[in-house]
Amino acid sequence: MPAIVMSNAGSNGAKKFEGKITIYVVICGVIAATGGLMFGYDIGISGGVTSMDDFLEEFFPVVYERKHKAKEDNYCKYDNQGLQLFTSSLYLAALVSSFVASKVCTKHGRRLTMQAASVFFLIGVVLNAAARNIAMLIIGRILLGVGVGFANQAVPLFLSEIAPVHIRGALNILFQLDVTIGIFVANIVNYFVSNIHPWGWRLALGLAGVPATMLCLGSMVIAETPTSLIEREQLMEGLAMLKKIRGTDNVNAEYEEILHACEMARQVKRPFRNLMKRSSRPQLVIAIAMQVFQQFTGINAIMFYAPVLFQTIGFKNDASLLSAVITGIVNVLSTVVSVVLVDKLGRRFLLLEACGQMLITQVAIGGVLLVNLKSTNELEHGVAVWVVVLVCLFVSSFAWSWGPLGWLIPSETFPLATRTAGYAFAVSSNMLFTFVIAQAFLSMMCHLRAGIFFFFAAWIVVMGLFVIFLLPETKNVPIDEMSERVWKRHWFWKRFMDEEEQDKKDSV
Ligand code: BGC
Which superkingdom heads the taxonomic lineage of this protein's source (predicted)? Predict the structure, then answer.
């Protein structure tokens, strides 16, 4: 079914590209998105493993003992820096490696970057599953992190570059959809392996090898993107690949445009330096803010520690993992909602609706726990069920807003010259603040107690104001018309854009 679609690249918006949604493009997209599965599986698995007795007894005996003390403080059971380092070391490694990955991506292509990601990840999986001491655990997690850093840089870029322009948004959110599926699968695995003694946790960590193997084998059969081939001056291969993934020989307009974009990008010798100029400020601030705010919703306090959290507030082991499975399902289904609605209702609507829903649910969870959960009592069953319901309402609003849009908006706001470097910044900001939350959350819960939920609620107010005043709507705006149609017309950001022309002259 050939589809004639509006180019999103021409400044007059009138050029047309011809392209089908070919089976090949769909297969390439599905395979590449398994990088999101790796990321999601990691997010989901560490919380489950760190609440398994066999694992704690072997590596964190102090935590194990405290966990089983009769009168333990409800809010402080698992506060242990070593245990938090297990979870968060991955994100620190991913933060550093995403900068390296952006260079590898440009020099050697997206496909090789994805292959490298799967290899690092697989070695990390082997070390983790076979771990005999904490060093093996942490080194394994670091290698997983390098894999995630490489995959998160290459996969969204790959998806955007191979997608026909009219399904680019949907293909971009496929990455987030796979993240949520990964988290969900990990929650199910946690649930079942927690009853396999004493090596269930090894199985849980080892199964991370499945998505990595899929990506490793899959990346041998998928295409390199035409943009990356042309960028690396393999013009004929780029043209042939473009014809193959579009399912038509009539690709000249798109080919010319990629060629032009690559030439423009080549003129900017130092994209990272360019990014620091005043005229890049609006996009850079938005890209970083979207990621920082995404993490300060408190989502990963729930995702990493859902089993621990539910256990902390009085669920038994299996019940807490089951609750985490339920939140996992809600997360996946609500992401599908985003795929359907994002281009109809717009980014700002989804983000603002979610701010309202997240604010109410965080305050309600905090309130319920403040009243009902003291240091050493247990929550009544009915109250605990309410907490799960509130958590689900919180997760659903995140999943159709800040989750996917945290990745989508930074990918559509930068002009081409700084797009890759800017995106690397967005990825690493995500990792940095994921690390901060992962490292700090359990200690914060120990000190702030139920107040932790009010802490996140306060951030949600800040991000709501940010969206109202500073985030322009980018729905249906062609990507290369952003400067003219969005930034130069925005009441606040336009003052930075006046210098754009001067900066352009400086950088050539
Ligand atoms: C975020 C992760 C989060 C996940 C939840 C992603 O977009 O980057 O930090 O755990 O969504 O689904």
Answer: Eukaryota
Q: One-letter amino acid identity for 285?
A: V
Rounded distance, CA 333 to CA 475, Å? Answer: 22
Tell me, in angstroms, the distance from the centre of ligand 1 to residue 209's CA. Answer: 20
Atom 4 in ligand 1: which residue has the minimum CA distance?
Answer: 403
Q: Crossing angle, helix 23-32 and helix 209-221, to 10 degrees?
A: 150
**Residue 508 belongs to what H/E stretch?**
none
Q: What's the first-to-final CA gap in the chain, in angstroms?
A: 42
| CB neighbours of residue 501 within 10 Å | 10
d(CA 437, CA 501): 39
Buried b (16+ CB within 10 A) or exposed e, 210-245: bbbebbbebbeebbbbbbbbbbbebeeebbebbeeb
pLDDT in tens, 433-469: 988 887 787 778 888 888 989 999 999 999 999 999 9
Residue 361 CB–ligand 1 contact under 6 Å: no
Atom of ligand 1 nearest to the CA of 179: 12
Tell me if 180 CB under 6 Å of ligand 1. Answer: yes
Q: 414 with 423: CB under 8 angstroms?
A: yes
Dist CA 344 CA 157 (whole Å): 23
Write 224-228 long-range contacts (CB < 8 A, 24+): 224/109, 224/110, 224/111, 225/109, 225/110, 225/111, 225/157, 225/158, 225/161, 225/162, 226/161, 226/162, 226/255, 226/258, 227/161, 227/258, 227/261, 227/262, 228/105, 228/109, 228/110, 228/111, 228/161
Instruction: Give the separation between CA 158 and CA 101, rounded to whole angstroms.
Output: 13
The pTM score is: 0.89
Those residues with Cβ within 8 angstroms of residue 437's Cβ, 6 or more apart along the chain or in another chain: 295, 296, 298, 300, 301
* Beta bridge partners of residue 5, listed in sequence order: 17
Euclidean distance between CA atoms 169 and 332, whole angstroms: 17
Ligand 1 binding pocket mutation candidate from 300, 430, 432 (most atoms within 8 A of CB)? 300
430 CB near ligand 1 (under 6 Å):
yes
Strand 3-6 relative to strand 16-19, pairing? antiparallel
Of 302, 283, 277, the closest CA to residue 358 belongs to: 302
Tens of pLDDT, residue by residue over 129-176, are: 999 999 999 999 999 999 999 999 899 888 878 887 777 778 889 999
Instruction: For residues 355 and 70, give the distance between their C-alpha atoms in angstroms, rounded to a whole number.
Output: 39
Q: Ligand 1 test: best mutation among 95, 172, 176, most atoms within 8 Å of CB?
A: 176
Distances in whole angstroms, Cα of residue 105 to Cα of each of 149, 152, 258, 369 = 12, 11, 17, 46
Per the document, the length of the chain is 508
